[in-house]
Write the structure tokens for this entry.
Amino acid sequence: MVATPVVSPDSVKDYYESLKPFWHPVMPAAELNDVPVAHADLLDTPLAITRLNGELVALSDVCRHFQAQLSLGAVRRVEGHGECLMCPYHGWTYTNDGRCVDIPQMMPGRTIPESARVDSYRVQEMYGLIWVCLADEPARDIPHLPNLGAPGFLPGPLRTYAPWVSSAPRVIMAALDDTHGAWVHNGLVGDRSHPEPPDHRVSRNGWDLVVDFTMWQPNNATIADDEARETLREVAITTTVGIPNTIHFTIRALDSDERVTLIWQAVCPAQYNRTLIFWGSARNYDLDQPAWDPEFEKLQDTLREQDRCVVESQKPWLLPPFWTKVELPMRPADLPLIEYQRWLQELGIVTDI
């Protein structure tokens, strides 16, 4: 029997370093409508997110003075600098690039030390989320989520789930794994009478892993009537994984060339074993109905809760390299997972030894 490796501090450090060059979603942008400053965690790095002088800002959430949390502070104006972020402990105040420009306790005639500064990070807003990159130069742009803004599609609400006790790649793999649906989601998006693996076509397109396949699903997973669920329909699915942290589904019913549902998910590796999940949807049908569909949302909540219970049970949290043989993926059923993990291994993200 192959022993399960223990996550070492060095493995966690390597994992964080390998993910630093990528953009990661850390919070919904709407949260800044309710508070002037918000706290977020990314790769075990605490962040203070705010808007200063109309610009989105991400600073280290640790004051240079006595390590107080800047996100507990306030936005104040400093002459010559406009809006700045003030620490709640002693009033040290920082500009959007992390420089301290005011120390209320400093004696006259002294100048603010050059070392009185905090780290600032690249930050953008997209898809209703705030994205942060901890590296000086991002390895890639924020992943593209196909057709979300396309004409004729009605976007659904942005949803945020409580953190999962798992690593971010494990969460993405749970969504990418289409053969578990017959077991974990039987009667919803899978059927145990059809456990056979799809004929996956897997390819790389730039920084995206693209998987095309067809599969049988219950005809209408939102209908409570058991007889209706026994009727299956064949759907064509294109899954796009934006390496390393987004996944997008284009789902088309083969009995209709026009009815298309888009579902997407983006994950934030707050810590190596704590992952935030953001997801949304869009559709090109029922455009005269409210974007919030209670039955559809209830279904998605159920699917994610079913996945969470299983994913949080997986150990180790980080993905072990193939050569360890800790896990035993099988072709053709696990081809998308094999290719995703292979790509992560090339980037040094798959590490646990």
In short: The first strand starts at residue 24 and ends at 28.
